[in-house]
Specification:
The protein is mainly alpha-helical. Helix 1 runs antiparallel to helix 10 and helix 4 packs across helix 7.
C-alpha cells in the first residue's frame, strides 16, 4: 500500500471511529431538551444514554467473528452505513420509545467500527511500527469524549437538539464514500462456523450486566427487583458462556489466544484503565456545572486542553517506543494520571478555570501516553490470526471499564454527598459556641427561614465538594496500585517475533 493511499485509509477509518465516539457523549448534553420534547421524566430520558451504551457493548460481542467471516472491508462499510441511517432516525424520532429504540440500534450497529478500525490501522503499518498505528487511532477515539460535549453544547445553544444526530450525515456520508473508495479488501474465513449459543450467551451477559450498572443507582441497587433479575441473568449467562467455549469444538471465541500472557494481562489492565479515566472526566463536568455554574460551552473550552494533552501523549509515545522499555512508559503514564488526580483532590470551591485546564491537560497527556503503549504491548506477542478477536475483547473490556467507572463515580459521589451533608449539618446549631468566634454572614442567620435555607445550600456545596475530592483521591490510590501489574508484561522490545508473522 502506497503512502498516499495509506494516509487516506487511516483518515477515513479514524474519522468513522471518532464520529461514533463523539455521538456516545454529546447526547448527554441535550437530555434536558429531549426531556421537554418528549414530556419525559429524568428516569425515562436516561434510557436514551443507557440504550446506546448497552447496544454498543453488545455490538462488540459479535464484531470479531463477523469481521473474519464476511471480510473486514464489507462488514465495516455495512456497519458505517447502518450507523448513519440509525443516526438520521434518532433525529427524526417522534416519541421517546422510538428514540430509545434507534439509539440502541445506533449503538449496536456502529460498535463494530471501533475494533475493526483499530485492526485496519494496525495492519496498515509493519509490526515494528504498531505504536505509530495505535497513536493515530488513539488520537481520533480519545479526543472524541472531549469534543462530544462541546459539539453537543454548541448545537444545543444555536440549533435544535435533533441536529446532534443529523450532524452525522454531512460528516458520515463523505467518510462512507472515502472508505468505499480506499479500504483494501481482506480475505474471508468462510470455513469458520458460527457459534450461535456462545454469541447469544456473551451478548446476554454483556447486556444484562450493563443494564444493571446503568440502572442500579436510580433504582437503589439490590433493593430493586429489576436489578436483581439483571444480575442473576448476567451471572448465569457468563457461566454458560465460559463452560461452552471451553467444551465446544468450534467456540465463538478461540480460547487459546488467552494463553498469551501479554493479551490476558493487557485485557485486565484495560478494564482498570477504562475505570480510571472517564469517571473523572464526567465528575469534573458535573462539578463545574453544578458548583461553579459553568455553561456547557465554557465547560467545553475548559476541558479542551485535555484533548491537546491526549494528542501530545500519543506523539511522545511513538518516540518512546523506539528507545524505552514500554513497561516504564506505561508506568510513567499511570503515575501521571495518579499525579493529576492528586492535584484535583486538593481543589476547593474556588478552583479556577486555569487549574482545571492544566490538570486536565496533564491527565490527558498521561492518557495518550498510556493508551498507545498499553494497546501495543497487549498485542505485541499475539499471533496475527487472533487480531480481530483480540481487538474486539480489548475494546469491550475498556468500554466495560468506562461504563462501570462512570456509574461508580456518580453513585459514590451521590451517596457520599448525603453522608457528608448529615455530618456537617450536625455542627450547625445556635448552641455551637464555635460559630460565635467567626464572622458569620447575615445571610446565614439561623434564626430565620431564609438564613437556614442559605446555610443549607452552602452545606450541600461543601458536602458535594468533599465527595468529589475523595473520589479524585481514590483514583490516585487505584492508579498507583496498578503500577506493579504493568511489570508482569513480558519485557524486551515492543514487538517480538512470533509465529504466524
Amino acid at each position: 500500500m502506497g503512502r498516499g493511499r495509506r494516509f487516506l485509509v487511516l483518515f477515513f477509518v479514524v474519522m468513522a471511529a471518532a464520529t461514533y465516539e463523539i455521538n456516545m457523549t454529546n447526547a448527554a448534553v441535550i437530555l434536558p431538551h429531549m426531556q421537554g420534547a418528549f414530556s419525559a421524566t429524568k428516569d425515562q430520558i436516561a434510557w436514551v444514554v443507557t440504550a446506546f451504551i448497552v447496544g454498543m457493548l453488545m455490538g462488540f460481542a459479535w464484531s470479531g467473528w463477523c469481521s473474519d467471516r464476511f471480510g473486514r472491508r464489507g462488514f465495516f462499510l455495512a456497519c458505517l452505513g447502518a450507523y448513519i441511517a440509525a443516526s438520521y432516525m434518532c433525529g427524526a424520532a417522534d416519541s421517546l420509545e422510538e428514540e430509545v429504540a434507534w439509539r440502541f440500534a445506533q449503538g449496536v450497529l456502529g460498535a463494530p467500527m471501533m475494533p475493526i478500525s483499530h485492526a485496519i490501522v494496525l495492519d496498515s503499518f509493519p509490526r515494528e511500527k504498531m505504536a505509530t498505528g495505535n497513536a493515530i487511532w488513539g488520537i481520533g477515539i480519545m479526543v472524541g469524549p472531549v469534543l462530544g460535549p462541546v459539539v453537543g453544547g454548541y448545537i444545543a445553544e444555536f440549533a435544535v437538539w435533533r441536529w446532534v444526530f443529523y450532524f452525522n450525515l454531512p460528516v458520515g456520508i463523505p467518510v462512507l464514500l472515502g472508505c468505499l473508495a480506499f479500504l483494501p479488501r481482506t480475505p474471508r474465513m468462510s470455513s469458520r462456523p458460527f457459534d450461535w449459543f456462545g454469541c447469544l450467551a456473551l451478548t446476554v451477559a454483556i447486556g444484562a450486566f450493563q443494564l444493571m450498572i446503568n440502572r442500579g443507582e436510580r433504582l437503589d441497587w439490590f433493593a430493586s427487583t429489576e436489578v436483581i433479575v439483571e444480575a442473576v441473568v448476567a451471572a448465569i449467562a457468563v457461566y454458560l458462556f465460559v463452560v461452552h467455549i471451553t467444551t465446544t469444538r468450534h467456540p465463538f471465541v478461540r480460547i487459546e489466544m488467552f494463553r498469551d500472557r501479554n493479551l490476558a494481562l493487557g485485557l485486565a489492565i484495560a478494564l482498570v484503565w477504562g475505570f480510571l479515566l472517564h469517571g473523572v472526566l464526567v465528575l469534573i463536568s458535573i462539578m463545574m456545572q453544578e458548583l461553579r455554574g459553568y455553561p456547557v460551552i465554557t465547560l467545553g473550552e475548559v476541558l479542551a486542553p485535555r484533548g491537546v494533552g491526549v494528542m501530545a501523549g500519543n506523539i511522545v509515545a511513538i518516540q518512546a517506543a523506539r528507545y524505552l522499555d514500554p513497561r516504564y512508559t506505561m508506568a510513567s503514564a499511570v503515575l501521571l494520571i495518579a499525579g493529576s488526580s492528586w492535584i484535583m483532590a486538593q481543589w476547593t470551591l474556588d478552583v479556577t478555570p486555569w487549574e482545571v485546564a492544566w490538570s486536565g491537560a496533564l491527565q490527558g497527556f498521561g492518557t495518550g501516553l498510556g493508551f498507545v503503549t498499553l494497546a501495543s504491548k497487549t498485542l505485541s506477542t499475539l499471533d496475527q490470526r487472533y487480531r480481530n478477536e483480540a481487538l474486539t475483547f480489548y475494546n469491550l473490556t475498556t468500554f466495560v471499564g468506562i461504563g462501570t467507572g462512570i456509574t461508580f463515580a456518580v453513585s459514590l459521589v451521590t451517596r457520599n454527598t448525603s453522608g457528608f451533608h448529615a455530618l456537617l449539618a450536625e455542627a450547625i446549631s445556635p448552641h455551637n459556641k464555635m460559630l460565635r468566634f467567626f464572622d458569620v454572614p447575615d445571610a446565614w442567620d439561623t434564626g430565620s427561614e431564609a438564613g437556614r435555607a442559605a446555610l443549607d445550600a452552602m452545606i450541600v456545596q461543601q458536602a458535594a465538594m468533599i465527595s468529589y475530592l475523595n473520589y479524585f483521591f481514590l483514583i490516585t490510590v487505584i492508579a498507583v496500585a496498578t503500577v506493579p501489574l504493568i511489570f508482569l508484561f513480558k519485557g524486551g522490545r515492543m514487538f517480538a517475533n512470533t509465529p504466524g508473522h
